[in-house]
Specification:
Elements lengths: L1 E5 L4 H12 L7 E5 L8 E4 L2 E4 L3 H6 L4 E4 L3 H13 L3 E4 L15 H4 L9 E3 L3 H17 L1 E10 L5 H13 L29 H13 L6 E8 L6 E9 L5 H9 L4 E3 L11 H4 L5 E8 L6 E8 L3 H17 L7
Parallel strand pairs: 1-2, 1-5, 5-6, 6-7, 8-9, 11-12
Antiparallel strand pairs: 3-4, 8-10, 10-13, 12-13
Helix pairs in contact: 1-10, 5-7, 5-10
Length: about 325
């Protein structure tokens, strides 16, 4: 088994390499780290293994079975089809392919079955989408979701190293490259991505459209507000859910406790609830602050937190790769 990691020197690529080493199914695979020409020859060390970065052209020529992409939409648009043509299964973390009707958009615990042998490119959803739909899918199956109102509180790590460095520079009082149009330290920015003519940002639009596609509900009513906050550990979301049918809160809690990949932390009287500082470095999605919304019928509020570099990106991509291997959907099988 050969697995290429395209964008291996980036923030998500680094975590992809780490998660691959943690995978019981994939840790013995031959890893091909690939990046731009300026990174070719760079040595990367993970545990007892050392890898040398190669160019994308070389990576294609090495004919990997699977390629995990996290190098931005432009690189994915140009290179994912080249890897696919060489017989490789591509799992892409950018937004380049997510809304393409021919490309499956996958959170394995929810809809891995949509992957077919002829799907050579598979899209990894946006980080904020992944954690939210993993918590919502069991509720939708049991009760039906009528409407979602979402506010996200997203880590600077969602902006890559550029966002992390801006926060670090500001905390040190030094100058440096900026990811945001305003200071992020001791501040929150109601701004994720670029604004459209209606005043929504690209991150907000992704959250709406991707949720509809993953849950296979193209008309689901969803509205969102994306906020960037000065934390490292992960993304947090306040989610208001209106269901088609009434519920008992204990039943909701039980459904979530039985959902693979979800950890319920819901004892607020003991100050026990999800927080990004504790989600950092973990693969699970943490859910808490479960409570009925008394202002609207059949509605509840929930608080959802996850490490956006892990389940929100690298872990989800590696889980898709594991599914491909387990179901013999790669060229190497």
């Amino acid at each position: 088994m050969r697995i290429a990691v395209v964008g291996a020197t980036g923030l998500v690529g680094d975590v992809m390499l780490t998660v691959l080493q943690e995978s019981a199914l994939l840790r013995d695979a031959e890893i091909i780290p690939a990046a731009s020409e300026r990174s070719v020859g760079k040595k990367l060390t993970y545990g007892e293994r050392e890898f040398e970065v190669v160019s994308l052209k070389t990576a294609v020529e090495m004919k990997p079975d699977i390629a995990l992409f996290s190098a931005g939409g432009d690189v994915s648009k140009e290179w994912a089809p080249k890897f696919a043509k060489a017989g490789c299964m591509v799992i892409d973390n950018s937004s380049a392919w997510r809304m393409d009707k021919k490309i499956p958009l996958v959170v394995p615990e929810i809809n891995a079955a949509v992957i077919k042998p002829n799907n050579k490119i598979i899209a990894n959803p946006n980080c904020s989408t992944i954690q939210m739909v993993l918590a919502l899918a069991p509720l939708h199956r049991a009760y039906g979701i009528r409407r979602l109102v979402v506010a996200t509180y997203q880590s600077v790590t969602g902006s890559g190293m550029k966002g992390v460095r801006q926060l670090e520079h500001e905390r040190k009082g030094s100058e440096g490259e900026k990811a945001y149009p305003h200071p992020i330290d001791l501040n929150v920015l109601p701004h994720g991505g670029s604004f459209d003519k209606d005043g929504y940002t690209s991150e907000e639009v992704k959250l709406v459209n991707e949720t509809r596609k993953i849950l296979d509900e193209p008309q689901m009513r969803i509205t969102s507000t994306v906020v960037r906050v000065p934390v490292y550990g992960g993304h947090s979301e306040a989610v208001n859910v209106e269901l088609d049918r009434d519920f008992r809160l204990n039943d909701i809690r039980g459904l979530l406790e039985q959902t693979k990949g979800v950890v319920v932390q819901d004892a607020p009287l003991n100050n026990h609830y999800p927080m990004p500082i504790f989600a950092r470095g973990k693969n699970e999605v943490f859910v808490g602050r479960l409570r009925r919304d008394f202002s609207n019928e059949n509605s509840l509020n929930m608080w959802v937190v996850s490490d956006n570099l892990r389940k929100g990106a690298a872990t989800n991509a590696v889980q898709i790769a594991e599914y491909l291997v387990e179901h013999k959907l790669t060229g190497g099988n």
